[in-house]
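Dissemination and training. As part of the outreach component of the grant, students in the summer workshop were shown how a complex can be specified as a set of sequence lines and then modelled as a single object. The example used during the hands-on session is reproduced here so that future cohorts can follow it. Participants entered these lines:
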Amino acid sequence: MERTPACRGPATLSAVAALLAAGAASAHPHMWIDARAQIDVDAEQRITAVRQVWLFDEMFGAYATQGLKKAKDGTLPADTLKGMAQDWMKALGEPISHYFTRVTVDGKTAAFAAPRDARVDWNPKTTRLTLSFTLPLDKPVAPGAGGAQVDIYDPTYFVAYAFEEKGAVSLGGPQGAACKADYRKPKELDWKTMQELAAIPADPDALPEELFAITKGLTHRIEVRCP
Amino acid sequence: MPVSRCARALAIVLLMLGGLSIAAAQGTHPFGVPESGSGLAGPGWLSSFFGSVSVWQSHFYRQLTGAVRAWQADGGAAWALVGLSFAYGVFHALGPGHGKAVISSYVLANRQTARNGALLALASSLIQALVAIVMVAVLALIFNATAATMNEATRWLELASYALVTLLGVWLVWVKAVRPLLRRAGAREHAAHDHADAPVHVHEHAHEHAHGHEHVHEDVHEHRHDHEHAHKHAYGNPQVQVQAHHHDHHHDHDCGCGHAHVPAPEQVAGPMNWRRAWSAIFAVGLRPCSGALIVLVFALSQNFFLAGVASALAMGLGTGLTVAALACLAVAAGSAATRLGSRLSGAGAARLRYAVEALAAMAVLLLGVMLLGGMLAAGG
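and obtained this result:
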């Protein structure tokens, strides 16, 4: 490489620096969750809670249950599963995760009350773990003219969700049948969004708000409307 | 004018190198899986590339379960798992992570040869795979430890790794950025006040060149611009000037600061200084990759640990080769910068080289501080 054209050097340099510039907020998924969500609608056509069931992939199942005492038939003791559920819900409640769920009406985020009915199940045959929990809203909200948006996703991209099963998204509660839920897949990350993601400061407390603002369209979105 | 355009491009690149870890948000993931590489923010303009890398990586990773089972059912299917793991490793290395940043910066700061850079990269990836294998073998296979224990172990290794990166950064900044300046100032003073001291100078500065620039002999033709030293050196002492000219091809790397005419021979030529390189290798390799850990544990759960070992090694090879390619690019970039500088002037070349090395050194330190700080802030 004697005497390359003047600009070839810098071009090489940019390529290196770019690759070195260790990446935007794009950790890749290490976990896959086949998820189901049911949104509860009360008698006054207000959303009261989001019930979720997350079925984890096998590799995670193997990792998470490694070293745990299993019965002969491969089942896990109830208290182990209970402890697991408690740990996970506690971690999910941190601001950075916020249950990976958000409910928005008229651009305002509805606050959650403490989650209920958290439980973990282990299926020794499929070697998969399931986490189920109910996330009640602090105060029930009516979807209104603009509808209510329920977004589910992991802003760190560590978990990849899929709502592909039939009936993965549904409405429940007294007036569930009166309302309609439309599910929309996340769109692929585009250039501009990635740039914005990369520009977010690393303050964990600030992350969810900003991320949700930027990543509109990158979430699994359930749009609820009550006529 | 092309040169100024290039200089600008170079400046931008160096700035980016310096700021390559703007943020390190090392939160613990709710599901208690050791998470690595996330939260490193960089310039956004290549992030769509990282986006696709991430998609491909997931694509390969998700098929690993099936590949482990296929091998278990049919011995001939081993290659599917090895191939998938290798591909995963390649994409893993292309994605965000501190390993390639540390290795490339180390290589740039130390002006390593491409060959040594590649060796460093491969060695660190191999160590990383071995750490994962040994960790799962000891903790999970022998002691039947839980995921919580393994996460804990991973965090300690991570802490050690980040601490090592930081120490390496401190050392590199001292040697590559601070000391040259001190020497330069010292040399100027000397030259101004007492010319007769010149020979003493020579000895004083000799050890400065001890930083392993083994490519001297391979690249002799590239370093003709080193007359700088001669000029600087020659403040009022023609004899020294002659001497310097005579020798300048021996010490291409001294950042415009000094003029060692007697670099210790073993440090100018010969193979890489492994004792020093180990610090970089361990700084990168100590922290096992979560992908490898999870595959190993999964293979263990299938009573087929061997598959996990093969997978982890193949991942390491894929990662290592990719980082090796990046390290070679870094080397090419480093010498490109030198060439660019040599077009400007001898002094420009030396300054540019100093800038590249000093910035690379600072990049390592910054990365270490960010990673360590992020981890400690997240509660250790």
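Residues 25-225 of chain A form one domain. Students were then asked to discuss how this feature might be tested experimentally.
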